[in-house]
């Protein structure tokens, strides 16, 4: 086509905008984690997901120039075949991109809840379900038509494809799984933070950031209403427009909101100090990575600690700072501090008495 018609222009604009936005957001996330020496498996998976999502979304743009999102009278038969081929590639790369992105979000929660087995087991079940459903979806789509080229070219003589209702049912099931994962990742932090000793304002802030994934499920819910467009044979490419739009937005929101989780140290760098005061009075630059360092110990003994805090812990239980990460005081910590305070007071008292008993030679004559 010589220009973009109908919904094609909107699709190109949305794809271009989110490709730029998601790239910046994910790279900024990796920069923050790298500067804090805290890059983990979830960050690498997020980067892989970004690359696959960009590849997937990039297929939408040439598809639009060949008729995707436009009414049937706007493009030729050859252009329609090309648009269908780009759409075929788009949906496969979308499924593959969805796996590392959602797995990364799940691993982030799993890393926080390292000591809460029921949460980590739930996370692993979610990841396993996601991978299995994604594989089944891709296999179904690859075997939808025979011969293989009939997946995008229905004019091939003898081409046979499954009914469109099967694709709609599969899309509904896959969307339902994604909605469940988004809500699980958003709600599990509530159980994690409930037992952590920190101010309620901080709890609410962290819960809000971790719960941003709900916005991604909003796009999935909207897409559910458009899946019946697969049965619109008379104006097929135009009906695909809304499906593609909300599919792109779904993972774009997941990439953006998933990146925001790592920005807390960056915000504190610009709007407040990230350092924590240590026992020697120095203000050391702590990592302040809440999502990486939080561990839930017990209801009355919760603390924040770095990944290296477990090293030589048996001889260092009285220390309040591990690897420059501030520890939330527990009941036992308060008792320890009280004992140290009493000992320090007694020592100071004896020192003052000793100083008062010293007579400097020649002082009386002066």
TrEMBL record:
An example Gene Ontology CC term for this record: membrane
Annotated TM spans: 12-32, 44-65, 123-142, 173-194, 206-224, 236-263
Entry keyword set: Membrane, Transmembrane, Transmembrane helix
Domain Rhodopsin: residue ranges: 28-269
Localization (cell): Membrane
Region (Disordered): 339-366
Protein name in the entry: Cation-transporting atpase 4
Organism in which the protein naturally occurs: Fusarium longipes
Signal peptide: none
Similarity comment: Belongs to the SAT4 family.
Membrane topology classification: Multi-pass membrane protein
Coiled coil (residue ranges): none
Main location: membrane
């Amino acid at each position: 086509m010589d220009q973009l018609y109908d919904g094609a222009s909107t699709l190109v604009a949305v794809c271009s905008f989110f490709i730029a936005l998601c790239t910046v957001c994910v790279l900024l996330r990796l920069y923050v984690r790298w500067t804090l020496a805290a890059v983990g498996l979830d960050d690498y998976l997020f980067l892989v997901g970004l690359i696959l999502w960009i590849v997937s979304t990039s297929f939408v743009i040439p598809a639009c120039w060949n008729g995707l999102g436009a009414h049937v009278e706007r493009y030729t038969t050859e252009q329609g075949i090309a648009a269908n081929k780009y759409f075929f590639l788009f949906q496969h790369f979308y499924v593959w991109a969805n796996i590392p992105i959602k797995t990364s979000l799940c691993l982030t929660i799993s890393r926080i809840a390292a000591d809460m087995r029921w949460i980590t087991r739930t996370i692993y079940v979610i990841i396993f379900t996601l991978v299995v459903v994604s594989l089944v979806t891709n296999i179904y789509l690859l075997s939808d038509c025979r011969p293989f080229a009939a997946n995008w070219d229905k004019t091939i003589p003898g081409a046979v494809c499954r009914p469109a209702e099967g694709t709609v049912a599969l899309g509904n099931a896959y969307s339902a799984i994604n909605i469940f994962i988004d809500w699980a990742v958003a709600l599990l932090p509530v159980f994690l933070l409930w037992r952590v000793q920190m101010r309620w304002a901080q709890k609410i802030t962290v819960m809000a950031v971790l719960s941003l994934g709900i916005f991604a499920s909003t796009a999935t819910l909207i897409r559910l209403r458009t899946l019946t467009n697969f049965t619109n044979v008379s104006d097929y490419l135009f009906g695909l427009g809304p499906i593609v739009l909300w599919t792109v937005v779904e993972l774009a929101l997941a990439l953006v909101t998933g990146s925001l989780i790592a920005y807390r140290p960056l915000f504190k760098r610009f709007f407040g100090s990230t350092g924590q005061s240590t026992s020697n009075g120095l203000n050391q630059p702590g990592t302040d990575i809440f999502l990486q360092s939080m561990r839930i110990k017990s209801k009355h003994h919760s603390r924040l600690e770095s990944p290296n805090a477990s090293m030589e812990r048996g001889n260092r239980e009285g220390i309040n700072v591990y690897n420059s990460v501030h520890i939330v005081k527990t009941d036992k910590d308060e008792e320890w501090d009280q004992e140290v305070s009493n000992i320090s007071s007694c020592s100071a008292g004896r020192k003052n008495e000793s100083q008062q008993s010293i007579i400097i030679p020649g002082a009386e004559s002066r």
